[in-house]
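Supplementary Note 3. Input sequence used for the single-chain structure prediction.
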Amino acid sequence: MNKSLRSTLISLPIILLGTFSLLYFGALSPNTIPSWFSDPWIRDPFVDGKLKYQVVTFGIALLILGLIFFLKPIQARQFYKLGNLNALAKPIRWLDIKSTDRWGKVGTTFAVIVSLATGAFIYFNLVRGLSFGTEIFRVMPYILILSGMNSFTEEAITRLSVIVALDGLLSRPMIYLISALIFGIPHLFGIPGGFLGSLMAGFLGWLLAKSIAETEGIFWAWFIHFLQDVIIFGGLFLVNLIH
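The predicted structure, written as discrete structure tokens, is reproduced below.
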């Protein structure tokens, strides 16, 4: 067994364990994390719970990135960066991505399209009928902080680490599919959840894996994911804090 294959076989259980930790702390046993952020610093249990989850899983993500870097240093140096934001995109006919398209255009286009789809899902399934005023601006800093942390954590564990571990050993379309499954299946229990939410998350996982591989960096994957999390956390805050 060559060194690269051995490193990959060690990396995959680490990635799967990290993915399970997101599900465990977020959906299966959120009260496992001690109440580190208690009164008087944060007075609302909803915010307290979300911040606890983000701090713990952000630490897990950094640990996994460090372990993967140790195991696959050459590949990690290739992808552990923002990347070429305007790199050529590989054509996908059914998505109307042409051979001349660049990720500056593709990333911007899908940031808008996916955000509209996420916004519609959250509106019809979570916040339809609710009203709000200036309260949303009071909680916006929390929404942005949580969205930034969550999007980085999930991209690091379910996308960036997967590509670094598997690139050169499997075809890139296969890597994109694996990342889609790793990201989509846990969303059966998340938000957006259920079968439709899982399909949406799986597609997003596939698209964002493609962006990391082709730009050799995390920027578009993180940015598009961040926008979705702003919409999702915004809906959750409307339901749990404002109403």
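The longest helix spans residues 135-166. Confidence is low (pLDDT under 50) at residues 37-41.
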